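User: Run a structure prediction on this.
Assistant: Running it now.
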Amino acid sequence: MEKMSITLDMVQKFKEQLYYDEKSEVTIGKYMHDILCFVKFTKDKEINKALVLEYKAFLEKEYAISSCNSMIAAINSFFRFIGRFDCIVKQFKVQRKAFCSEDKELSRGEYIRLIETAKRKGNERLSLIIQTICGTGIRVSELEYITVEAVRQGQAVVSCKNKTRTVFIVRDLQKKLLKYIKDNGISSGIVFVTKNGKPVSRCNIWRDMKALCKEAGVSPEKVFPHNLRHLFARTFYGIEKDIAKLADILGHSSINTTRIYIITTGEEHRRKMEGMRLII
């Protein structure tokens, strides 16, 4: 195998390929971050399997296994692009969790307290953003599809990760959004925008949600936009018990991804086991 180190030109061409493959901006940004981390680790050394395995061992010491596997997936994709199949390494094996930690799961009660706190602070936009994400199950990056036109129709057509799906806006949420649209004089286009008319960013939403934590009495570790999507998934599955339908609603290609979203806490498992009454 010819000696080779990674150049920024290679990375740029890979970025362009991701763009042509119609990957989302978030996905492209994640891949670029992970690949540049690997480039920094290599320090212009010759790229070979031994060096990649060394990097894999480094990741295991520095990151959670799920993060390690995500970063390995990114560099493996890059190696395929440049034709270095000899450098591809296996991801870490992870046993599927039966339940999640209670200090990570956002409860319905905590969700309600966040909304009430946002209202008390006079931040109606944030209150409705939280309810829109949790009430529809959309990704925070998909908020741009919640337009005046979509709200009036009661549904939004969302395109993400090369898939298009219809997201329903339930009547109660529709009424709240229509009032917000009217009160703020929004005639058309994206509902949730900044003062400059740009779509609100993930960072802004994350920051504003964190600012609610202390007054709402909710752990900051539980408060981030994607956890609202998880709460939607658990609530829907608790009613329907249909993981395939939930996968379609969330826009997942694999049911295995959806399973991660419906994992409940160990306490709920304990209550169910107590209810079995098998100890005489």
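The first helix runs from residue 8 to 20.
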